[in-house]
Amino acid sequence: MKRFWGFVVKEFLHIFRDYRTLLILFGMPVVQLILFGFVITNEIKDARFAVLDLSRDEVTRQITEKITSSGYFRLDRNLHTYSEIEGAFREGDIRLVVVFEPDFAQRLEREKVAHVQLIGDASDPNTASILVSYASGILNNYLFAMNSEAIPLQIHPETRMMYNQELRGVFMFVPGLMAMLLMLISALMTSLSITKEKELGTMELLLASPLRPLQIVVGKVFPYVFLAFLNACIIILLGWAVFGVPVRGSVGLLLFESFLFITVALSLGILISCITNSQQLAMMISLVALLLPTVLLSGFIFPVENMPMVLQWFCHIMPPMYFITIIKSIMLKGNGLFFVWKETLILFGFTFFFILMSIKKFSIRLS
Amino acid sequence: MQKEPENIIVVKDLVKKFGSFVANDHLTFEVKRGEIFGFLGANGAGKTTAIRILCGLSFPTSGELSVAGFNVYTQREKIKQNIGYMSQKFSLYDDLTTFENIRFYAAIYGLSKKEIDLRAGILMKKLDLEEARNSLIRDIPLGWKQKLAFSVAIIHDPKIVFLDEPTGGVDPITRRQFWDMIYEAARNGITVFVTTHYMDEAEYCDRLSIMVDGRIAALNTPLALREQYHAKNMNEVFLKLARVQKAAEA
Amino acid sequence: MRTIFYIIQKEFIQVFRNKRMLPIIFVVPIVQLLILVNAATFEMKQIDMAVVDLDLTSSSRQLTSKFQGSPFYRITSAPFSYSEAFVLMQKGDVDVILQIPRGFEKDLVKEKNTQVQLIVDAINGASAGLINAYSTNIILDFNREVLIEWLNPAEMGNIRRIVTETSYWYNPKLNYTTYMVPGILVLLVTIIGLLLSGMNIVREKEIGTIEQINVTPIRKIEFIAGKLIPFWIIAMFELAFGLVIGKLLFNIPIEGSLWLIFLSAGVYLFVILGFGLLISTMTNTQQQSMLVSFFFMVVFILMSGLFTSIESMPLWAQRVDLINPLAYFIKIMRMVMLKGSSFADISKLFYSLVGYAVLIISLAIWRYRKVA
Lengths: 367, 250, 372
What we know:
Helix content of chain A: 55-70%
Number of helices of chain A: 14
Structural class of chain B: alpha/beta
Oligomer: heterotrimer
Shape of chain B: globular
Structural class of chain A: alpha/beta
């Protein structure tokens, strides 16, 4: 037993002396939280647009003013002819062109109808459609104010945003960030650490020593469990302290689920290290089979419900999706075990499955 | 015609420190052209450190050194053109074949394609490796790897070849065969600088120095050392020296 | 000079002999492309809604059926109380609750003013915004229908309308795939370039063969060139392969000149490979090198404008983006592929990349030492 602890201590020392790795492992959550919290946003702000005002009257000026002052748009330039539009788009920065027909205000008064063209740069279709709907919305509001005496019947929709009143993007990202980093540390680092011993040939030395294989694996993996857990705590803490991401449910349950996910990721990392001998390969497999799905197919950034059925099926056979659901449920909705028992069970199942596979692979190797 | 210098390696007061740890403590010695010079000592005595400095892989902290007539501080690249090196791990590429390894290293030393093919053929024949020509290095036995690594180290006919613990992990017969190769290289005019912790290998050298804790504790021919310390073999010489050192420190 | 050729030869042998790496380098990026393109969408497919109808009049039912009639909405339940509906939201079964208060129709007729509540699950802020917009739109639409039904023509006549015609250029069908593929190709090529090249050199450090190389008279530049060029070639090849797949499978447009694309890609790859090289001079183990590369990659990718737009970032972040090679190249790719921009249009971006490449490779070469 003492031998085992000696081994564990050695592994710890290895890692803690590797200050570069530590720096990145602990710096990453901080930097990414900053990125997600302050920098990345799906919201549209200051999108450059151009106006081709063929009318140049009070109304068109007011509407343009409303668009500019909405915060979504920034007026880049005024165009004079239709042919200038192409060039404006080509230069790369203009996303929307608003075209007012001639005699706009007059037509609106006399004929009660006037026309506006909204031309979006759909090379970025997402932004384009959002900008168009914002612009339409601004037009509608203007119209509404104009018509307010005439329209007698009003249905007012009152919206309440639950769990995240200010629609902060960061709420989505903290759970996803946890999943990604825990996966990174527990699976990727672990698989690299074990395959490195194999690559350098020292694994054979270890196997020849009095330590049992199980002890070797546990010993190698133990420091990363610790690191991963520490990391998770830091993310939650930072998220709460800097960005106000709440922990509305039980902190204990949250930590337990995090620990559970760490074990899932660890068992995956061990499985990967059982099937390969080279670090490069282990890394590529981890990245491809683990990290990319964690980021893309887990509901981290892109909602699972919006994906085609085939992909949704993929999401359901990967652990990160369940973990993220659990975290969101506990942190942001304040739910208890009652609401997440199903997903928790699934995570347990994953762990058992991966460990079983690893043992099988390992015994094949030995025999 | 100017006579080539008798001493092909000259080292004066070489010091190498890692932080406050002194790995090489004022080493002073010379190696004569064409001789087999041994660097003996326990693990951690500073042998590998010294040899890496002589190869240009590491900077000395202080001291004067010249290898093959070139200054180690300012003419590093010239030195490299004239030396060969075989490291402890005899770095051959596991995932390349025998021939591919030879070709690669030979090419780096600037041999032409014709030369490479020629020498590679000769080499493989001599080492009896022809059947292993297209085998991956990871699949051939350790003894073969060693011999191959040594041959690759001298494929460009360097003036000096540095061998860092070249015989680790093989049986005594293979080790003996390896030393035969060293003898042959020396006969062909290559100076051999070899480090080892096998005491019996010390007997094979023309001259050797024994390192203890970063310092040269003795420097002479094997015969002279045995006489000096009244020892039956080098092992005894070494033990006596180590005891002297311990006493001096106490 | 010839030595470079031999190094390249060795690298290629090693890459192609590594049977397991091959599919990863060549097949996996394509698979990722396929997945990414289909997964990376912010469009709403289906909005699950619970309707709490406390009025139960023909008007309230009309409003409900308007939602039912929309292909985006799925009314999963009609609970009798708000608290029931809220449990559904806690469970994650509904995205939005529509609550129609008692007296909805009566108020509409009498006071001409009434209210409905929309309670949206806002954990995903962006989705919530869209759900809110769509739902509000439907309600306003309903409002308009009510107006048409109940107002007389004279009253109707006073209402002014602005008719908007919308058109989308360069991607009229708003095909998200078209937009994403160029960026994703960049992403994949970057991963290969950065991770593999960096780890490769560090691997030689780790197993010790780099000593054998350092002890030879080989020049730094020869060694570095020999290490980078194979990966440059592989990455370029992957890019070409990816473009072919993109064209065949997704029919992405290639409006601009292919030469321009490959020229920019070539320069861009030098920047990326330079980064990989730089990282390899700062790390000693493959683990470290991978971690550092990964770190920079994630930051660069997120800030590159691939998933979220650069203009929406705060000013200080946009300035940081000046050193993000991905941002430059993604912009170039999109402009050239989708809009057919010419060299003149992208010249500023292009020259920035060239300068960047020179800078970074020089830095890496300077840092690389054959001596410890």
